[in-house]
Structures are given as C-alpha cells and as structure tokens.
Amino acid sequence: MYRKLLPWCIDPYKTPLCIKPIDNCHLKDKTFTLLNWNVHKNNHSFQWLHDFHHILHHYSPDLITFQEYQTKSKRSILDQNRDYGYGFFPNIQMRGKEYGLLNASKSLIDLCNPLYSQHLEPLIKTPKVSLFTQYKLFDGQKLAIINTHMINFVQSDKYLAQIKQLEKLCKDHQKLILTGDFNTWNTRRMHLLQEMTKALGLTQIDFEINHHKKRYFAHALDHVFYKGLTPKKQTILHKIKTSDHKPLIVTFSH
C-alpha cells in the first residue's frame, strides 16, 4: 500500500523526449555559455520562472543542463522560447509528473541518449540517470555534453559503478563537458570522481566563490568538468534561492 506514495521507475526502454530549436543547426559562435542547475523540482513555481527568465536575459546561455527537472505534461517551459531545443529523460514518475534530466541548447541535437545507473537508491528503489547529447560547433567539430545526477545513499562500490559508466561515455570525445549533481558528499566519492576525470584528461572548473555551492558535510555536490575547451568566465548565482542548489554559469571558447 505504501508503494502508492513512492516514485515509480520509468520504463528503461522509454524514448527521450527531444524537441528541436527553430532554425539553428550548430552553435554559431566560437564562444558559448553553459548553465548547470539542479532545480529541485521547483521549475513550475512563479519565483523559479522569474529567476530563470532573469538568467536568460542576463546570461543568454547557449547550453542548459538541469537535474531534478519536473514535467507536468510533455510540454516544457522551454517550448515558450523556441531558440532552444532540448532532450528530456526522467528517472522517476509520481502522481502524473515525471522528474529527470534536461539538456537544452540553441543548437540542433545530433544525438540524445540516456543511461540508467546500474544500482537503485534505497527505499524508493529508483535509479539515477545520465543524459548524453551531442552538438555541432560552428567549425563542424562535435561537442559532447554529459549531464548526470549521481546515485545517493549507497556504498562507495555502487557509486563507483556509475563512475565507470560515465567513464565509458566520456572516453571517445575530444571536446566534452561533464556536468551535473555528483552527490560528492564525502572525500571518498570526490576522490573516485577525480580519479576518473584525471584519467580522461578532464579539468574541473574552479569557481572563485566555491563556498556558495550546494554542500553536504562541507563537500560541494555540483561540478563542471571539460576537455578540449578553454574556460573564459565562471560564476555561481548565489543570490538565487528557488532551489537548494545554485545555478553555475561557465563561458567557454573552442
């Protein structure tokens, strides 16, 4: 009887929802901006929408990666701004709503592939998801984006299993951004993540006001790693309070 109150895992053969932007087939400029944000399922609230429109107006991100994005239907707030296309894939559904990862871009999505974690989180018995999307840059090169929400409340060996999945996704790409909520709430988890990213030649963005990131047991949870790109500017929008995580903004050139 209690199962009615708990989330349900999405069908593993479910196809990601993929919406195209109006007319862009590639990222138009040598410089582009990424927004990463765990929106904490608040993305239909009035205040969140106000904050998001503020970000769009002031930062005009070319790429957006959301975790814990909620859909009340198959429509998205991004449908109201058709400069963006997006891929969405949920890992849970409950009471007519779906929650998961969303990758949005002003560029056409070449590929959109989800990947479930091998293990389930305890109690609710749902997996976590990573979402891989690929885009064309203005010079014809490919940019891979991997948005992930790492498994929580499990032993390190199960966390490592998802790290190994990410490693396979990352290894064959020359230009890559790996971003998301990594749930690195202890030193062991952070060490496993850093071992993997170092082996793949990925560099972590160093945010100057890192203490404003979402933290648990004094450890930051949200990170941005990159390869084959040059970071130009990065910031944490620490004054925004409509999620328990802060938006991370990074501008890259390639």
Layout of helices and strands, plus pairs?
Elements: E1 8-9, E2 17-19, E3 31-38, H1 46-59, E4 63-71, E5 85-94, E6 97-105, E7 109-116, E8 129-136, E9 142-149, H2 156-170, E10 176-181, H3 187-199, E11 203-204, E12 215-216, E13 219-220, E14 222-227, E15 230-236, E16 248-253
Parallel strand pairs: 3-4, 9-10
Antiparallel strand pairs: 1-5, 2-5, 3-16, 4-6, 5-6, 7-8, 8-9, 10-14, 11-14, 12-13, 15-16
Helix pairs in contact: 2-3
Task: Using the alpha-carbon principal axes, give the shape.
Answer: globular
Structural class: alpha+beta
H/E series, N to C?
A: EEEHEEEEEEHEHEEEEEE
Strand residue content: 35-45%
Q: Report the span from N to C terminus.
A: 54 Å
Count of runs of 4 or more consecutive helical residues: 3
Mean pLDDT: 86
| Count of β-strands | 16
Please state the CA-atom Rg, rounded to the nearest Å. Answer: 17 Å
Give the fraction of residues assigned to helices: 10-25%
Low-confidence spans: pLDDT under 50, at least 5 residues? none
Query: Biggest sheet, in brief?
Result: 8 strands, mixed
